[in-house]
Amino acid sequence: MTIGIFICILDTTVMSIALPAMQSGLHTDLAHLSWALNIYTILFACLTIPLGRIADIYGRERLYLVGLSLFFLGSIASGLAPTVSFLIAGRGLQSIGAAIVFPASMTIGIQSTSLAGRTQAIALLGVTQGLAAAFGPTIGGVLTQYFGWRTIFLINLPLALTALGLCLHLLDWHHTGSQHETLDIPGTLTSMLTLFSLSLLLIKGNDWGWTSWRIIGLMSTCGLALGLFLVIESRVAQPMMPLALFKDQQFNGAAIVTVAAGIFFIALMVILPSFFTKIQGATELQAALMVTPASLMLFICSPISGFLLNKVGPRTVIATGCLAILSGYITLSLSNPAVYWQG
């Protein structure tokens, strides 16, 4: 399951450092090329929850196989794309596959372990996500520098084939899902509309202008769809997202911290490589090496934090992590751009 999670999250950051080379190779402008980056994020965000729910109902193992196959085909299409439009289509296919593989991997990985080992399983899956996002720019930079930008997509092929082979050999194909459950179609559609409009307005707000009619329209659509989603989920017998979860303060706190940490970390791993290549004129390899310290710290600190959880408790560990993130961003904002390792 870790391979599936790794390639899904890897492709959220691996492309950012290769944009200049891709722009030159495809003879396109950055505005069009950015859609190849954004389409993956948008579709992954708005499809993960509903496709994960569909996998719960109709069988995670079968949907996992379908998702891996779609991701594999999307990687081929992206790696061999002759035009930017073809690349965008390939990335879209990748993201649909990833939106199936990611939640199915999490659920299968957790449920395949004993109750005593589930904490370790959750930690392993979480560390895999972080490492994939962290090493994405480094992997992308090295591959682009030495083998060309197309290899950042083609590298997925042996990994996906390995995951497919393990999937066919190890998974329980007799599991047919929860056939007695039904899909909350209104909740699914409104959640997709909420997340799609939210993702698009956050990505394109700066380009289109935060007061433009398109962004205002997306804000209105997001608010209306979210309101409808909450009403629907409070009334249906089998909601896609049980709202009772949000009555648990620990759940709310953990969710807020997880989202905030993810935003800050992904922003760092996406913005810094682009800054190094476009503003400072660094090569892909140089930019990759510049962000490697962040990747290494995640690799080093993840097992340490897991060990400390049992010693000092989650609140102390989480608070320390939040302070470290805050300190790093403050240092980056005050530092000399030429001294990239200060934050």
From TrEMBL:
GO cellular component annotations of the record: plasma membrane
Pfam families reported for this sequence: MFS_1
Intracellular or extracellular location(s): Cell membrane
Keyword Cell membrane recorded: yes
Membrane topology: Multi-pass membrane protein
Gene Ontology MF terms in the entry: transmembrane transporter activity
UniProt keyword Transmembrane helix, yes or no: yes
Alphabetically ordered keywords of this record: Cell membrane, Membrane, Transmembrane, Transmembrane helix, Transport
Transmembrane segments: 32-51, 63-81, 93-110, 122-143, 149-171, 183-203, 215-232, 253-276, 288-309, 316-334
Domain Major facilitator superfamily (MFS) profile: 1-343
Top-rank taxon, per record: Bacteria
Protein name from the UniProt record: Transporter, major facilitator family protein
